[in-house]
Prior knowledge:
Strand content of chain A: 25-35%
Number of domains of chain A: 2
Number of helices of chain A: 12
Shape of chain A: globular
Number of strands of chain A: 13
Distance between the termini of chain A: 35 Å
Oligomer: heterodimer
Structural class of chain A: alpha/beta
Bound molecules: adenosine-5'-triphosphate, magnesium ion
Amino acid sequence: MSDSLIQVRGLTRDYRLTKKREGVTGGLVDLVRPRREILRAVNDVSFEIPTGEMVGYIGANGAGKSTTLKMLTGILTPTSGEVTVGGLVPWEQRLQYTRHIGAVFGQRTQLWWDLAVVESFRLLQKIYEVEESVYKRQMETFHELLDIGDFLHQPVRKLSLGQRMRCDLAAALLHGPRVLFLDEPTIGLDVVAKENVREFLREIRDRDKVTIILTTHDLADIEQLCKRVIIIDKGQVHFDGDLEDLRVRVGQKVRLTVDLRESVASEVLAETTTGLPVRWETAEGNRHHAEFNRSEVAGGEVIKSLVNGVHVKDLHMAEQPIEEVVRDIYRQQKEPSA
Amino acid sequence: MSELAAQLLTPWHRSASASVGLYFYFIRLAFLKFLAYRVRYYTGVVSYTIFVTGHYYVYSALFASAVAESATGQLGGLSLPEMITYVAISWIGRSFYFNAIARDLARMVQEGEIAVMLIKPFHVQTVMMFEAIGESAFRLLMFTLPIMVVIVPLFHIQSAPDPMIYLWTFVSFCLALVIYSQLNFMLGCLAFAMKNIQGVLRAKMVSMDFLTGVVVPFTFFPEWFQVVMSYLPFQYISYVPVTIYLGKRQGAELQEALLVQLAWAVGLFLLGRLVWRVSVRNVIVQGG
Ligand SMILES: Nc1ncnc2c1ncn2[C@@H]1O[C@H](COP(=O)(O)OP(=O)(O)OP(=O)(O)O)[C@@H](O)[C@H]1O
Ligand SMILES: [Mg+2]
């Protein structure tokens, strides 16, 4: 047996669904003979995470990320499989276990809605028996890194999403948990707020050696925070390894958007990058799109030859969105020859 | 096992004094929360007064027509002034012990908010009970007292037969609060198993005041009904405390009533814990 902090083996979770038939007669038929279906939201998931690692758990909508996290936090009992965190089984030793973990579910707050933020913190202090000196020190850190001082005395329901999220993060960490589960902690945040949150997570990862599992739809979160990623699709793990390995495996597709000063024929434009592995797509007026792979050609090189050939007004490079990366991984699995 | 893994295994128990501190804190928070919504209760004073007024006229008419035929001047073992007092004290008591735990819990389960309760190291049941106590403390001050100020002089409510009875009535209503909150809690737990418990909640709304004896005193019902009810906890929510106030239970009978009530309170709390354990095992948290 290994000594990883988090151990997940064969984790599986089914949801039972009743499928509704259409119309009035359908509704009546449903009453007599409901159509039941079983959805396997998480399917035989296994992984291990050693102490102090920060892992990105990613996948498309409905992939089973939240379901996995609910089981890891002890909220949901799995259909089958095993989980131990520090030797505890989350859903069996809930009271013991929850003392040692923190969790943020980006979609909902764990602060008391009607109370001023600081009242929630005081309550958490009581719940986790945080000593006054530790409480003071923690609050100072939160002020410093998350800048929550300004709205500490406002009721939670009056906070903006970004303010609330920062408070929620602080609330999840007040008691100094050893493990942190974050389900979309940057959802709905603006660029600045996202940056604050990332900075904060980096800090607690490096300083306190907190083990963190994070789900997100923002690849930048992963790039900036996690060395390791686990990709899940339709409930199954499709990749588990270093982010760098992932890049090598799928390549680093980049989508380039170019706005030109004057209208230029597509062929002329394509000519500027002859010899480079760049694929041009059909244009929309003076706007052109191209795709290339960073593992084959550097972005700078593409742009250099482009700027030398035509009058570029503006250009924009975008990473392949996370969903597409996942889809590519999935495709590769289906076609083992690729 | 690595060092940190071992560290996680550290047994952790909240000391008794810390538990008391924590759960009392929930009383305080609930009190503060309801204080923020106090305006809502001013209209409550009016509607409770209307309920009692309605009962007042119904029973007055009933007595006027029925009592002529009986020699005792009583109906269901109560005289008219007792009857009016019964109704008034029932509603005054209800204004104190009432809460909406079942609805709140069902909502938390249905909207997935229960998730954030489940990742906290406390007993959700105990927390909800202490919140209910906090709510009742608020109700006592902001709702029950104003209602008493209006109703007691308005309907010439009888005073209790001896001053200690006030205390025992209050104790009895406090136990009623525990019983009521636990029944409500278990009802709310149904939301874990059923998709929609609106129907159940509505059925509870209409039957509860009847079963507890708020609407009609049990003495109006046939013998067999009273026997059945004596094996159930409902009468300990209203009928028993009100009859204590009326002086219908004194001495040993009073002691027995309070002890049985206490037993129900403890028993239902333990049952509630069991129901919670079973419910949480098949919890499906929505959303996320
Ligand atoms: N309470 C539920 N009842 C029935 N099916 C559910 C329930 N919760 C989730 N599912 C289904 O399980 C699958 C996985 O859902 P889950 O919430 O884990 O996805 P996710 O990876 O978190 O997606 P997202 O990125 O959209 O948050 C989905 O197909 C979803 O429809
Ligand atoms: Mg999710």
